[in-house]
Amino acid sequence: MPATNFKEYPVDQFKALLITRDEATKKQTVAETMLTPEDLMAGDVDIRVEYSTVNYKDGLAITGKLPVVRRFPMIPGVDLAGTVMASGREGIRAGDKVIVNGWGLGETHYGAYSQMARVDGGFITPLPPEFTTAEAMAIGTAGYTAMLAIIALEKNGVGFDKGPVIVTGATGGVGSMAVSLLSRLGYEVIAVTGKVDERDYLMSLGAGEIISRADLMGAPKLLGKERWAGGIDAVGGPVLANVLSMTMTGGAVAACGNVAGFELNTSVAPFILRGVALLGIESSHQAPERRVEAWTRLARDIDRDKLAGMTTLMPWSGIENAAHDIVEGKVRGRLVVEIG
Does the global pTM surpass 0.85? Predict the structure, then answer.
């Protein structure tokens, strides 16, 4: 239901980025448009959006490279941070600073590239007081996912004293955040990248060793030399298969991406001969307590200097170009969008 009475509402209209599709040709169109509060989807909390991000999923949605958007028209954007304008949900009040990520935002529910959002109150995570809304989006789904992966590794016994941890897709959003966080927590980090010119960037985040992605793109052995105690994989495909084959006995790998493909051509050898665990990391529909756990850890463990060093602040007008760039692998670190 609407969060308030529109006749008394302080906003008459606002701008949003809208994806539409011609159902005959299946061709997508992306355009800035003006909407009114009545145009928004159902929800009991209205938010003035202050900042968002451009994630790989956002790039896929805007470019149409994969069918991320599952209803049209759609406002893309899977991450937002802002201030509650009106609320019909107990425990959430006007003026609260909040985060929303996942829950179908930008896929089945109008997303973040809009000056105003209406969501179900169950989607909302309170903004930790340690962060501004801009800092929260510098972290975004990427940092939140990286922290979920780190917590999963810890719960599976992969501590910093067990050996190195490998991070694939290391210059991307999840990868950059994972390298920085793991380093801060005392892990020896091996970073994998296809961008040979980004060595200095990865070393500045805390990587101790850099491996070319090309070295992990071949057909994996049943078992390779044991090289790392664990891993965070944002790439998938043959890279993940090779990472698994070289994981130490009793180790674990957290998988959260598919840039190199959905297929995983591996064998049972790492699992039954070394006891390696493959941990799937799903971030969109985590329970509120898991989200609060991850954001609480982020508030404690983040290195703000490194976060600033991997973040680029960009205007609304740059969203579409950034979407194409991130799908084409031209983006490193985090892109924060000032919605305004």
Answer: yes
